[in-house]
Amino acid sequence: MNLTEYRASTNEQKRILDLLSLMPPNFFNGLDIGARDGYISECMAMHCEHVTALDLTMPKIVHERIECVQGNITDLNFNDNTFDVVLCAEVLEHIYPELLQQACAELIRVTKRWLIIGVPFNQDIRLGATRCPSCRKTNPPWGHINSFTVEKLCNLFDPLKAQRINFISKAKAKTNFVTHALMEYADHPYGTYVQDECCIHCGSEINRFMDQRTLTQRLATRVGFLCQSVQVIFSQAQPSWVHILFEKK
Fold first, then answer.
1. CATH number of domain containing 135
2. What are the CA-CA distances from residue 4 to residues 17, 35, 38, 91, 169 (Å)?
């Protein structure tokens, strides 16, 4: 994925601006979990004196107020109550379910007061699924293993209190059992194959392969698209993302 083009997109700019709007004024230090290219870390640096940009691989950000750190959200190498603001956006959906509670506990531990969480809202992780060319197993779109509602997030971050809840953008992004079953049979030919995320099962690169599909698989794809078109007619649009500002008292 070209991150420069992605960051410039209308929906991405809307998402980032909303995350920044949740930041309290005049705080000293912040932590950006899942910093990637450093775009949000640099935005945070406009609001505070010092930002720690953390990712699984060492971020490469050149900024006088940003410190780059390699680390894992499930085992943060910081003292309790270290940061005035912790921001964790587009990360929790990638955490293995058995480690999710531990990751949330670490975020609660290291924040002194404020925690900003951003995740896809109530995502149907069947839609846009892919097939790994190596192990042949099904992968959720973009490597999103978890789906979140407001209630689930509030339970995960208890005893923190949600002070603001914002919903961003809207889309009819739901599928159905029939479409998913047909696409599963057809090897998910039109999933999110432009993703950078590797297979959640074997770690191999996800890429498109459609040259070996049979005639019946191609027919299944057409019927699946038809079923999905009907699904869209009767579906209601829902928010694409949810952002929550939690407070630690």
1. 3.40.50.150
2. 16, 14, 11, 19, 20
